[in-house]
Fold this sequence. Notes:
By secondary structure, the protein is of the alpha/beta class. Helix content is 44%, strand content 13%. It has helices at 15-31, 51-54, 60-75, 103-117, 127-134, 151-165, 182-192, 203-212, 254-266, 282-292, 303-311, 321-329, 343-350, 365-378, 383-397, 400-403, and strands at residues 3-7, 11-12, 36-40, 91-92, 138-142, 169-175, 197-200, 219-221, 238-244, 270-273, 295-296, 313-318, 334-336.
Amino acid sequence: MKNVFLITKLKTSNLGNEVLSTEIIRLFKENNKNDVIRVNGRPMGIEGYFVNRIIKSKLPSQQLDKWAEKIASQINKIAPIEFAANNPKIILVKEQSPKMKWEPFKAKLRPLKRLLGITKVFFPAYQPRAAYLKSADWLVYSGAGEVGDNSVFLRQLLEIRVAQKLGVKTAAVNQSVVIKTPLFQQLTAHVYGKMEKIVIRGTQTQRNLIKYGVPENIIELAPDSAINATYNGSVVRDKRKIGFNLTPRLNVNNAQIETIIKHLESMGKEIFFITNEPFGDLSMMNILQEKFGIKPISKLDGYKDYMEKLASLDWVISARLHTNVLSLATGTPIIPVEGNVFKTTELMEQLQYPIPVIDTAQNEWVGKLLAEVDKLDRGDYLIADYFTKVLPLVKEKAKRNASWLNDFN
């Protein structure tokens, strides 16, 4: 029996993160029934460790280790605690939530909290979490969209390094690693390279980690766990309706959008704007509604409700990674658009999806997208075979995000 300190996102406005967390928790509890699984969110109480404190360091890995040693030393003074399983509720912050009105005020207070944190090893709020970490055999980090060049990921790297200093085995699962700066590439290699296991979502992440200096032998590939998501009830698919998503992150213009919409409307399609991240895509949603009359599907009651909406569509065009994954999970065909460097591309490769990912950074991307629209509409792809023969095997492989732990009995 192993005590497993599982980290994932427990509060989010992103339906993709909601389903990731739900599925990774389920996978660990179903595939490791003899182990004690305690689920944790982001580490709160170590806000004093942020990028500006380490960015000028000549030896950032050594600086991270100094911080980790101070924290580990303080944790060792905490009284032992019985490691216990839990079933936390994942909180979805909805667009109409009254909590959101306080967010601008909280954002203004965060810099002050970071400055106060410099004077402390950690805030008292971190101590209960630290006690469980001290009693763990394993720390398993499921990033849920947090891996990047930022203070949130820095604090998570720090906590993982603390666990390693405490003698806790560590692993990272179900993530893509998009790191752009040498600083974070070095820190990621320093921490991830000392893990016992890494399960990632694609070959580009694998190449990147190896390039940073992470040993190849600890890395394994598995499809995104969200592909196993399910929803309630049965839905009738409407052949006239399609879902459409482009994000503000993409370098697209109104003329390109208009070309796509006119082509879809000429096919007799009714277009709906869809997104698993309503806050992040608000500006794009407004453009599509005001300039092109595209109605949004909004006010969603969680990812299962979103899946029901996706299941009612004929097919989907999306730059949102988990809109694509959830569509496939409902049996809805997609034309995927790369939304974040290479995440969608490597994920679709793991899902063995036959339609190529459209990259808006390439020339003539609109023409390529519309060509795929026509192919899908004509039935050029054996989509039914994908959903009946390929996808069930992919879903089975996704269990490796959690079942690998049994290899260490």
